[in-house]
Amino acid sequence: PAALVLLMAPFGSWDAHHTFCSRFVTPYLFPCRCTVDDRVTRVAWLNRSTILYAGNDKWSIDNRVVILSNTKTQYSIKIHNVDVYDEGPYTCSVQTDNHPKTSRVHLIVQVPPQIVNISSDITVNEGSSVTLMCLAFGRPEPTVTWRHLSGKGQGFVSEDEYLEITGITREQSGEYECSAVNDVAVPDVRKVKVTVNYPPYISNAKNTGASVGQKGILQCEASAVPGLVQWKAELANGLEGVRIESKGRLSTLTFFNVSEKDYGNYTCVATNKLGNTNASIILYGRCPVYLQ
Fold first, then answer.
1. Which end of the chain is more exposed for a tag (fewer CB within 10 A), N or C?
2. Does a cis peptide bond (omega within 30 degrees of 0) precede residue 100?
3. Which residue has the higher pLDDT, 238 or 190?
4. Are 24 and 45 in contact (CB under 8 A)?
5. H or E element in which residue 102 lies
6. Does Iron count among this protein's keywords (predicted)?
7. In whole angstroms, what is the distance from residue 242 CA to residue 34 CA?
8. Rounded to the nearest 5°, which phi and psi values hold at 23?
């Protein structure tokens, strides 16, 4: 927290008006300066119409306000742990033998940006409407910006506390970054993960040939969120002795030693709660090639 020092010293000019900015992390010196030719009889510091100190007498009940000095050359007070409620006008009032003199400063308290409320991670179905919220506080009021952190880079989305997406697509899934900026301190940044469920589809499924005694591999590339890929065989021995592997979108059937009974039709089935789809893939025999 910052400490605010209000100072009256014997140089400068009276009836001056100054504006100062105080940040929570930086101490500030606030001068109330004057040239006093007449004898000073009374001095006081005021916040608006409230007297903080009159001479050495403390009128404020705020423990953060303390006097630093009261001499012929300087009259200053200090406010510890400055917050937004301290913002406003401060007046140094001096009574001389002739007439009172005043000097005023206006304190503006700057607060670093802080995101105080943001949407939780969310899972929706493709085609739904989504609203993401990011509420931030700061002085001056921070600018809130949403960005979609897609695999293609950071794309600009919206400069608002609320981001509305109508008819969301699978390409719009991923992380959304909210940043609050007001140039007082580094931006406050938070992220929300949006998962988009969509029905399965098979993008690649090709028939494959393999010779007897060789290795044969059938591949099925399917996409779905959430997704489950299964294999079915229209053969008496089913999938006995066949290894099934799934990595990302790709699911494979591996035959380590192809026999005649392995030839036939296999079905790749992709399914989730939004639907299902399938594709037939044939493992067929390939004539061996003999080298002369």
1. C
2. no
3. 190
4. no
5. strand 100-118
6. no
7. 94
8. -100, 155
The rounded distance, in Å, linking the Cα atoms of 104 and 123 is: 56
Phi, psi of 200, rounded to the nearest 5 degrees: -75, 155
What CA–CA distance (Å, rounded) separates 146 from 178? Answer: 5
Which of 148, 149, 144 is CA-nearest to residue 181?
A: 144
**Helix, strand or coil, per DSSP, at residue 83:** coil
Are the C-beta atoms of 258 and 212 separated by less than 8 Å?
yes
Query: What pLDDT score does 137 carry?
Result: 94
Write the DSSP assignment of 5-40 as a string of letters.
EEEEESSS-SS-EEEEEEETTS-EEEEEE----SPE
Could you tell me if 49 and 61 are in contact, meaning their C-beta atoms sit under 8 angstroms apart? no
Can you list the alpha helix ranges (DSSP code H) found in the chain? none
Phi, psi (degrees; rounded to nearest 5) at 174: 120, -160
pLDDT in tens, 147-191: 999 766 556 678 899 999 999 999 999 999 999 999 888 999 999
One-letter amino acid at 188 equals D
* DSSP H or E stretch at residue 194: strand 188-205
Question: What gap in Å lies between CA 240 and CA 262, rounded to an integer?
Answer: 10
Q: Copy the structure tokens of residue 96.
A: 């001389």
Where do we find the tokens 């910052």?
A: 2
Contacts of 170 (CB under 8 A, 6+ apart): 126, 196, 198, 225
pLDDT band at 9 (very low <50, low <70, confident <90, very high): very low
